[in-house]
Amino acid sequence: MISLIGFIGLLFSCIFSVSIVISFFNQNKKVYEKIFYYSVYLSAISILVSFLALILAFINSDFSNYTVFQNSHSSKPLLYKIAGTWGNHEGSMLLWLVIMLIYNCVFSFNKTLDISLKKLTILFQSSIYICFALFVIFTSNPFLVNSILVNEGLGLNPILQDPALAIHPPLLYLGYVGFSLILCLSLSGTLLNKIDKEWILTTKNWTLFCWSMLTGGIALGSYWAYYELGWGGWWFWDPVENVSLMPWIAGLALVHSLMMAKNEPLLKRWIVFLSILCFSLSIFGTFLVRSGILTSVHSFASDSSRGIFILILFLIITGFSFILFIFKSNESNTKLNLLFINKTSALVINNIVMIIACLTILLGTIYPIIIEVVSNKRISVGAPYFNSTALPILLPGFLLMSIAPALSWQNNKLPKFKYYLITFISMSTLTVIISWFSFFSIWGFIGLLLSFIIIAGSVLTIYINSTKFGYQNFLNYNNALIAHIGVGIMILGITCSSVFKSEYSLSILKNEEIKFDKYSVELIDIKILERDNFQELKAFLQINKDKKVMSLVNPSKRYYHVSKIITTEVGIYRNWFQDFYTVLGSENNKKWDIKIYTNPLVNLIWFGVLLMVFSGFVGILKNE
Amino acid sequence: MNKIILSIPIFIILIISIFLFIFLLQEKNPTKPPSALLNEELPKFSLVSLFDKTVTLSSLDVVNQITLINFFASWCAPCKVEHPLFFKIKKKYLNLFILGIDMQDTNKDAIEFLTTDGNPYDYVGVDEQGLVGVEFGVIGLPETFVVNKDGKIIYKYLGPLTDKIIEDEIEPLLQ
Amino acid sequence: MIVIFFCLVAKASVESDLKNITSKLRCMTCQNQTIYSSDADFSKNIKKIVEEKLKNNESEKEIINYLIERYGEYIVFEPQMNIGNLFLWFFPFTILALCLVFFIFRIKKN
Predict the structure, then answer these.
(1) Which chain B residues are Cβ-neighbours of A304 within 8 angstroms?
(2) Contact C26, C35 (CB under 8 A)
(3) Are A550 and A543 in contact (CB under 8 A)?
(4) How far is residue A577's CA from residue A599's CA, in Å, rounded to a whole number?
(5) Fold of B32-174
(6) Residue C57 burial by Cβ neighbours in a 10 Å radius (0-12, 13-18, 19+)
C-alpha cells in the first residue's frame, strides 16, 4: 500500500512536470499561467509524498517492498532505517529527484529575476527532471513489489550504519544536483540574452549554496573515512571520491568567476561554460558510480543497462547544452583587463589552474577504462599520479590566494606592498627554521610555506582593511579572506598530518605500560561486551604523558550477528595539536598487537573546511 | 575560429562516451582484471604429486598438448561447486590434459576431497605455499587457465566455472 | 654482539622497505586498499613474498617488476612510465604550460 502511494507520487511528479512543459508552450492563454506555477508546486509535493512513502516503508520494515527487503533489517536502529532509504541505488536516485524539484519550487518564488528568464529556467529544469524521472521509473524503481514472502530483510552493511554517513548523501546531492538549476539558469540566460546584474546575483547565491553543501558533503565523507576505515587516511583518490571532487573544483572556479563578473562583463560566456561543465561532471560522476564500471568502497550494485541509460542522458543533456552554448552565446566586444598583476589576472590564473586540475583528475579517473578498451590490460591510476600532477598544478593558485583579495582591479599596484613582502619573508624564514628542527621533506616545506603565507597574507589584508574601513561590516569586506584563511588552515592540517605523522606498532600485555615518543600507553583492560546487534571486543587504553593521564581510548573489534561481519573500530583521542589514532590487532601469547598513529594538526583540516562553508553562507547572506 | 574552439568540449565528450559505451558493452567485471599472462609462455613450475611424493610434474612435461589448469583447494566452497563440470569436460575431450593444482591446502584434506567428490584431474600437484599460484598471477580460488599446444596461456577465468562459460568460452579453444 | 646489532638493523630496514613497497601495491581482492594496510589472505601472501625477496637483497624495482609481470600493472597504484601512459603523464603540465604562455602573451599585449 505504501509502495503504491510512493509509486503514484513518483508518476504524478513526472506528469506535473510534463504539464509545466505544456503550459510553457501555451503562454498566450491565461489559464496556462496558473497551471504552470501550480504544476511546479504540485510536482514538488508529489515527489515529496513519494519519498516520504519510501521512508515510511523503511521505518515500518515493510519487506513487501523489494528495495526495503534488499537494504534493511528490522533490528537496525531507527536512525539507520531512515538513512537506509537513501543508502542504496534506487532510494538515492529518488532523493536526487526530490532535490531537483525542491530547487525548482524554491526557485519559482524568486521575485527579482525577469519573468521570462525565470519561466525558461523552470522549463529546462523540469525537462531535465523528466529525463531522470523516466530513468528511475524504468530502471531504478524503488517501489517494486517483492515477489517472495519474507519475514526479514537482507540487512545493511554495519560499516554504513553511521551518523556521518547518514547525512553525507543528502548534503552531496544538495550540492551537485543543485548544479542542475545553475545549468538551467545559464541556458535560459544565454537563450534570452539576459545575463545581467540580477542574473549574476541570483546565480551567485544559488551557486554559493550548492557549493557550500557540496563542500560539507565531501568533508563529511572524508571525516567518516578517517575514523571508520582504520588506516588514518581520509582521501584515497578513489574514483568515487574523484567524481565528487571534480564538480567541486569546477564549482569553485564558477564561484570565483561569478564574483568577478561584476567588474569584467566579458566573463559571461565563461560563466555559462563553467555552469554546463559543473552539472555535466555531476551527471558523469553519477554514471561512473552507478554503471558498474568502477570498483570502489562505494559503488552501488549495478547494471550495465542503467549505465547505458545514464550515458545517453549525459550525452543528451550535455550535448544540448554545449550546442546551445556554441550557437547562441553572446559575443562581447570588450577585452579582459589583464595586467601583471591585478585582480583580473589573479582570477584568470585561478580559473586556469582549477580547470586543468579538474581535467587532470578526470583523465586519471577514466584512463584505466580507455586503456582496457584499447589493449585489454588493466592499469591503476592511483594516489601517486594525482599527488604528482593535480597538486603541483594547484600550487600557483594557492600562492596567489595570499594576496589576491588585496589586489586592485584597475592597476597592478598592491597597497602596502612592503608589509606583504616583510610578512612573506618572515614566513619563509619560519618555515626554514621549522624544517631545520624537525626533518626536511619537500612537500612538508611547500605545504607549511603555503599555509603560513596564505594565513599571514590574509590576516594582514584584514588588518589593512580595518584601518581603512573600521570594524563595521567586518564580514562584508573580509568574507573572501576568511575563506582563504580556512583554506590555509586546511593546508596546514593536511601537510602536518601527512608529512609529520608517526606510526608505532606495539605488542602489549594487560596492565603493561609501553613508552612511545614522548608518551606512554597502558592497556588497562580488554573485555568482551554484548550490545544490541553486535558483540564487541573492547580495549581500554590509557595514554599518558610525563606520568599524567592524557586520555582513555577504546579501539575495538565488533562482530555483527546478522550480517556476520567483523569490523575494526578505531579509538581516537583528539586534541588541537594532534590525534592519537589507535587500532586493535590480534592476540599473540596474551600480548595484544596495537597500532598507534599520531596525526599532528589533523583537526585543522576539518576546522578549515568549516570556515570555508561558513564563508560560503556569509557570501549568500551578505548580498541580501 | 572561435566556433571551432568552442566545439572542442563536445568532441572530447563524444570520444569519451564512445570509449565508455564500448567498455559497457563488453560487460567487463571490475573485480576480475584480465590476466597479465595472456599470450605469454607458461610459467616454469615443478609440482610434487598429491598422491605420491616421489612423482614430480614440471612445466616442460606439459608442452605440445592443450592443457586445462585448475587451481583449487579443499576449503574453497566455489571450487566444490564447479568440481563436477571437469568430469563433463574430461568425457568430451579425451585428449585434453587436465592439471589440478591444490593451493595452500593440506594433503590430507585434499585427498579426502578428491576421494569423496571424485578426481577428474590427470595430475594433481601440490602448491602448499602458493608460490606457483603467484607465478600464474592467481588472486583467489578457483582460477582456470587454458594453455595451447605452443605452451602459451590463451585463456584465464577467475571464479567458479559454469556450463555456459565452458560452452561459450573454453570449448572453442579446446578444438 | 655486533652481529646481533647488524641483524637488528637489517631487520629494521627490511621492515621499513617492506612498508614502503607494500604501500605502493594494490590488494587485488580488496576494494581500493594497499597491501600494507590490508589483512586479506592475498595481501598476507604478497607481504611474505616481498619480505623474502628483500632478504635476498632484491631491489625495489626488481620486486615490483616481478609482481607486474605476473599480476599486470593493475597491482601498482602508480601508472608506469611507458608509451601507453605517455599522454597521461604529459597532458597536465603541457596544457598548463600552453595556457600560461597564452596568458603571458595576452598580458604583454595590454
Answers:
(1) 24-25, 27
(2) yes
(3) yes
(4) 9
(5) Glutaredoxin (3.40.30)
(6) exposed
Whole-angstrom Cα distance, residue A95 to residue A178? Answer: 12
Residue A218, Cβ density class (10 Å: 0-12 exposed, 13-18 middle, ≥19 buried): buried
Secondary structure (3-state) at A564:
coil
Q: Whole-prediction pTM value?
A: 0.93
Residue C65 in 3-state DSSP? helix
Quick check: A156 pLDDT over 70? no
Q: Which chain C residue has the Cα nearest residue A583?
A: C37
User: Angle at CA A355, nearest 5°, toward A352 and A358?
Assistant: 145
Residues in chain A: 624
CB within 8 A of A538, min separation 6: which ones? A526, A527, A528, A529, A554, A556
Chain C contact for A563 (CB, 8 A cutoff): no
Judged by DSSP in three states, A434 sits in: helix
Which tens digit of pLDDT belongs to each residue from C53-86?
999 999 999 999 999 999 999 999 999 998 989 9
CA geometry: angle A421, A427, A433, nearest 5 deg: 140
Give A437's pLDDT tier (boundaries 50, 70, 90).
confident
pLDDT of residue A299: 58
Instruction: Say how far apart CA B44 and CA B64 lie, in whole Å.
Output: 15
pLDDT over 60 (residue A297):
no
Question: What's the alpha-carbon Rg for chain B, to the nearest Å?
Answer: 21
Length of chain C: 110
Q: Please, is A37 exposed, middle or buried when counting C-beta atoms within 10 Å of its C-beta (0-12, 13-18, 19+)? A: middle
Strand partners, B127: B103
Chain A residues within an 8 Å CB radius of C15: none
What ipTM was assigned to the predicted interfaces of this complex? Answer: 0.92
User: How many residue pairs bridge chain B and chain C with CB atoms within 8 Å of each other?
Assistant: 32
Distance of alpha carbon B39 from alpha carbon A255, whole angstroms: 52
- Summarize pLDDT for A209-252 with one digit per residue, the tens: 999 999 999 999 999 999 988 888 899 999 989 999 999 999 99
The CA distances from residue B23 to A28, A210, A488, in Å, are 48, 32, 41
Q: For the CA atoms of chain C, what is the radius of gyration?
A: 21
Q: How far apart are CA A378 and CA A371, in angstroms?
A: 7
| Whether the Cβ atoms of residue A227 and residue A570 lie closer than 8 Å to each other | yes
Please name the residues in contact with A238: beta carbons below 8 A apart, sequence gap of 6 or more.
Answer: A296, A297, A298, C32
> What's at B169, amino acid-wise?
E
Q: Does A271 touch chain C (CB under 8 A)?
A: no
